[in-house]
Structures are given as structure tokens and as C-alpha cells.
């Protein structure tokens, strides 16, 4: 019988990683196809790419910190 308890922060990290990857993917697609209106200046800053990359990095950090280790390692 295992006594390991998984932290809720691990799942939050996974969700952040998934949302970040999907947001960054759609932002890269938008950037590549230039599907935003030409008159919208903030769209040229590519905010979805930056937001997605930030969420992805944060999710990976959470996953690395709260990933359960083996019983011999602590």
C-alpha cells in the first residue's frame, strides 16, 4: 500500500502548462497568418505568444517543484 500523497499544485501546474501551450500555439498561428486587423496596433505585440509562454514556463516550474519523487529520494 502506498502512502504517497500528490499535491494539488502538481495538477495546477499541469493545467497551466496545457493552457499555456494551447495559447502559445494559437498565438503563433495568428502571428504566422497575420489574421489580426492591420489597424489594431496592440495585436502587433503578439500578446498571446507572450502570455502562453509565461503560463507554460510557470506550469513547468510548478510541475518540477511538486513532482512526487521516489521513496528513496527526498
Q: What's the end-to-end separation, in Å?
A: 19 Å
Order of helices and strands: HH
Rg estimate, integer Å: 17 Å
Mean pLDDT: 84
Q: What fraction of residues sit in β-strands?
A: under 5%
Task: Give the beta-strand count.
Answer: 0
Helix count from the secondary structure assignment = 2
Low-confidence stretches: none
Helix content: 55-70%
Based on Cα principal axes, name the global outline.
rod-shaped
Please describe what this structure looks like.
This protein is mainly α. 62% of the residues lie in helices and 0% in strands. It contains 2 helices and no strands. It has helices at 8-33, 47-66. Helix 1 (8-33) runs antiparallel to helix 2 (47-66). It starts with 7 loop residues before the first helix and ends in an 8-residue tail after the last helix. The model has no long low-confidence stretch (mean pLDDT 84).
Any chance you could write out the topology, listing elements then pairs?
Elements: H1 8-33, H2 47-66
